Amino acid sequence: MRLPATLKEEDSMQGKRTRALDSRGRPVPGLYVRDGRFIAGFNCPQTRRWRMVTLEAETLTEARREREALLAGLRDGRTRAPSETTVAELFGDWQETRTLAARTIELERHVFRRHLAPLAARRAQDVTVGELATILRTMRAAGYSEWLRVHVLRIARGSFAHGLRRGILNRSPVDGLAPSEVPKQRNARPVEVLDADALSDLVTAASSERWRAALALAGFAALRLGEVRALEWRDVDLDAGTITVSRSMTPDGTVKSTKTAAGERVVPIVPALRRLLVEWRLRSPHTRPGDLVITTVDGGPVQERNVRRALDEAKTIAGLADTAGRLSTHALRHSCLSALATGGLAATTLAAIAGHTDPGFTMRCYARDGRDSAELVADVLDRAAGAGFGR
After folding, report:
1. Which one in 108, 186, 187, 247 has a CA-CA gap of 20 to 30 Å to 154?
2. Domain containing 323: what range?
């Protein structure tokens, strides 16, 4: 007999439950009958609570065997005991186990309430693959973006995986989705990677010393936008030619630690960046060690939207407003790392500058060679000749 993945606890009290009797009229231990169905009663080895479970058996002999199989499955872990944990509770507990920014917590909760609400009150054990597939199909039919559908699936996958680790589930309904039902995130436009000349033109086109310095910190030092906004003058050592990155800033202005432990790093200041920082320091009214490098007039942190506005203006002036790829502040970071990778910088060094733990991730995601095929071929042939290869 095939064992169920989870036990469905008996909760219907409509019929009168009686003891199951054998051929001699004697009560059978642990077996009952209600509405023509056999019910198994037992002390659950996992929860140490009395449970009543409706069986599929049609005869007394089959009912005895099914009850023993259920007990054996509970004892050796093949079958999970019924749990009252709902999907909403599972999701909340999963969030509690992770270290998340307040913004991420609220975003996940909003997505869960908006799109996974039909499952919220359901027992996590009872959710089927079909229910999850229906939610994803309905979102697709309603015209929701692939990115949002991926986000919904990511929340469901994380919550049910947490249930597996906690022993609440035997399997995740996410695992049963067909390949065609799994959304795949595809950006409408790839990240634009600028060459050294275009990057320099873009930074120079910024409307003021402040915004030139801000764009240069992203484009010449590969700082993230939050790191640019949180940078203080004491972190900038113009004599040593280094920037110490140790903080970041959320969109609402809250200062926090860097994205990862590897994010705390020392970045070299290239000559072009040094010139722009010196120019901005001479002009800025806020240059004490604890002052922010990129500030508003009153010394407060600049808003993300204002940095993006300054970038948009510079793109227009530099003739880069209509690039094929997305040219954001993060694209400036991509451009910097790609230029360094093309220049032959070691992967481990590149990862250290980027603030990544895994050099392989840096090379896969950031080290993109923006040269055309003719330039690539010429470069490879020159390097091969220099190395005496292929003669």
Report:
1. 247
2. 196-365
